[in-house]
Every structure is written in C-alpha cells, then in structure tokens.
Design a protein that fits this description.
Elements: H1 3-16, H2 22-34, H3 36-51, H4 66-76, H5 79-100, H6 106-140, H7 156-166, H8 170-181, H9 187-199, H10 203-214, H11 223-234, H12 238-250, H13 256-266
Length: about 270
C-alpha cells in the first residue's frame, strides 16, 4: 500500500465511523469533490461499510487487494450471506432486549451467544469455500470487447444504454435494453441484457439471455459460452462452469486462453 492510500484509508475510516469534527468533515467532503482517486477509494470503503453496518466492534484492515474487495462485496450481496446476516442481527436484537430487562441468566444469554458465534463461523467458512469461484468471477468480470452501439443508425437509445452500462448504472441500462429487446432481439442487445442481469445478481435472467445469444448465428454468439461460464462461477456451480468451459475450449471460441486457465484452476 502506498503512502497516499494509507492516508486515504485513515481519513475514510474516520469519516465513516463519525470520528471527525464538523470542520474536518467539511474539509474531507470538499476533498471528495476535488480528488477523483480519493473519491474512488471512498466508494469502495463505503460499500464495504454498508455491507457490515452495525459491526462497529470489528477492526478493519484496509491493506487489501481490489479484487479481494470485489470478491468480498459480491459475496456479501449473495443470498447465503444475507440469511446469515439476518441470523446474526436477530441474535443481536434478542440479546439487546434481554439486556434492557437486566436478564443475565446464563441459560438465556449463552444460547444467544452460541447462535451468533455459529452464524459468524458459518459465514466465514462459507465465504472461504466459495471464494475460489467468486475470485475467478471477479478477476474476469472486467467487461471488455463489448459491441459499440454509438453508431447504429443514429439510435440514441442504444447509445444511452451502452453509456449507462459503462457508468455502472446497470438497473437503468437494463431497463433501456429490455424495452429495445421487445422490438428485436439483436445479439448486441442480448449481451448487454445478460451482463446487466449478471451485475444485478439476476442470474437466472442472465443465463436466459446468454442461452439466447448462444443459439443465434451472429459473430458474437461464441461469447455466450464465456459469459455463461462466468455466470455459473458467480453461482458457485463449478461443475456447470467446467462443462461450458470445456465446450468453449473444444470449439475454439472467444476467450479460449482464459478458459483453459480457468479449467486448470477448477480441476
């Protein structure tokens, strides 16, 4: 970590934990508007802070790799993590309720602490067991080689949908491409629809669009194998990801080299 990043992390952590004076807050917020690098770091920290809100007793180490952050954030958004977070919150609420009533008997407090401890253990264990596929997904989900829609017959909606996707406004982009697909299911639109759904964790929809793309006769149809594999990785479906990657490699499709690397890691 360089000196600037370390300085940013301390400032951001203090801001998010409400440890700055009013004057310091104003200076920090002014810096956010003037320093793009600081703003980018702040957004990453803010995302993680939101995912673990209420965990003020956790000491966070900010010496991280950005891929690790994306992998962790992806997992925190998953259904499994959400269930465990609710379990922990329920145990915490019950404990606080008993605390207010000054009920400290071991036969009441101990089960609550055990339940919370088990939930935390399962959360950590589940994340570690899934992290390999999650990290694979994160590493390869920097979308590139996407079709350019800025010169498709002057269709402003296509260009707007592409711009929103590039700006990571996936919900808005998805809405535009969904409307466009009602008229005609162009392969390029299917790609953007599938990737928007993938980023929004609507994985069944993503699979649907990529299957449609795979069954077209367009030049970009071979990209569907790669996108399907990434979707299965995000679902932690190792076997399905392996099968589709083997199809990709045997057909010498898009991302052949990367697919071989993933197969080596999965097998």
């Amino acid at each position: 970590m360089d000196i600037n990043q370390e300085k940013y992390h301390k400032q951001i952590s203090a801001y998010l934990r409400d440890e700055l004076s009013p004057e310091e807050k104003k200076l920090f917020e002014k810096s956010l508007t003037q320093n793009p690098e600081l703003l980018q770091e702040f957004k990453i920290h803010q995302e993680l802070f939101a995912q673990v809100e209420g965990s003020e007793d956790i000491v966070v180490s900010w010496d991280y790799d950005k891929e690790d952050v994306r992998a962790l954030t992806t997992y925190f958004r998953s259904e499994e993590a959400e269930k465990l977070k609710k379990t922990i919150q329920k145990a915490k609420n019950n404990y606080q309720g008993y605390k207010k009533q000054r009920v400290w008997r071991k036969n009441i407090i101990l089960p609550l602490l055990v339940a919370a401890s088990i939930a935390v253990f399962v959360l950590v264990y589940t994340f570690n067991s899934k992290s390999s596929t999650t990290e694979m997904y994160v590493k390869h989900s920097e979308w590139e080689d996407l079709p350019s829609l800025t010169s498709r017959g002057g269709d402003n909606k296509l260009a707007e949908g592409e711009r929103l996707f590039v700006d990571k406004k996936y919900k808005e982009s998805y809405a535009i491409f969904t409307a466009l697909s009602q008229k005609e299911q162009q392969p390029s639109v299917l790609i953007y629809l599938g990737l928007c759904a993938l980023e929004l964790d609507q994985l069944d929809k993503a699979l649907h669009y990529f299957e449609l793309l795979k069954n077209t006769e367009a030049i970009d149809s071979s990209k569907a194998y790669w996108y399907l594999a990434l979707t299965y990785l995000k679902q932690n479906e190792k076997e399905k990801a392996t099968n589709i990657l083997q199809e990709l490699v045997s057909g010498n499709h898009y991302k052949n080299t990367e697919a071989r690397e993933l197969l080596d890691q999965l097998q």
